[in-house]
Amino acid sequence: MKVLAIDTAGWSSSVALWKDGQEISFQENSEERRQAAMLPHLVKAVLRNHKADLLLVNVGPGSFTGIRVGLAFAKGFSMGLGLPLTGMNSFMATYKSLNTHEDVLVLREAHRQDVFAMLFQKGTPHPPQSLTRKDIETILQSPSPPLLAGNGIHPFLDGLSFKEISSPWRGAQALAYTFFKDSTLASDPTPFYVRDADVSFPLKP
C-alpha cells in the first residue's frame, strides 16, 4: 500500500509518500503564507510517477488556516482521483513516532500566549487542552514531570529546565510512520480544534 501524507496543520507544509512502512519521497516548505500555493507543487514533486492508494491528512490542532488548507486540498484531491481519505491528529502522530514508554506531554505551537497540549500517561491520551507557560511550569515542578515533545516547545519554554524527546520523523513523515505502525489511529478527516477559531468580522458600514 502506498500512502500519501499531507501536513499543513502547522506553519509550514510537508508531503510524504510511504509504501508498506518505508518512505519513498518527502518534500517540505516553510513559507507560511504560501501554503495553498505550494501544496500542489509539493504533492507533484513527491508523487512523480507513483500512484497513491490512500490519502492521509493532518487534521490539527495547529494553524486554523493551515488545517483548512490541508483538508480542502485533500478532499478535492481524493474526490478527483477516487482515493480513500482519512485523517490523523498532530498529537497522536507526534507521540506514536517517539520511542519511549515514559509519560509524554506533547505541545503544539499556537502562535499565541499558550500552546496546544495533550498528555500521554502510560500510553493513554488525556483530553486536549490549552496551556500557558505558567501552567507548564507547574507541571514541570511535579514529583515526576513528563517528557516534553512537539513543535510547541521552542521558543515558548526557553529558559525552563525540562527533558525533551524528539522523533526522527517530522510533519507528514510522522503521519505516515504512525499510520503504518497502527492504522486504527486514523479517523474521519474533520478538523481537530482545541479551542474555537479566532474570527474577525468586518465592520458594518
Q: How does this model look, in words?
A:
With 205 residues, the protein is of the alpha/beta class. The chain folds into two domains: 2-90 and 168-185, Nucleotidyltransferase, domain 5, CATH 3.30.420.40; 100-166. Helices cover 27% and strands 25% of the residues. The protein has five helices and ten strands, in the order βββαβαβαββββαβα. It has helices at residues 35-47, 64-81, 90-96, 133-140, 172-181; strands at 2-7, 13-19, 22-29, 54-58, 85-88, 104-109, 115-121, 124-125, 129-131, 147-149. Strands 3-2-1-4-5 form a five-stranded mixed beta sheet, sandwiched between helices. Strands 6, 7, 8, 9 and 10 form a five-stranded mixed beta sheet that branches. A hairpin with a 2-residue loop joins strand 2 and strand 3. Helix 3 (90-96) packs across helix 5. The termini are far apart.
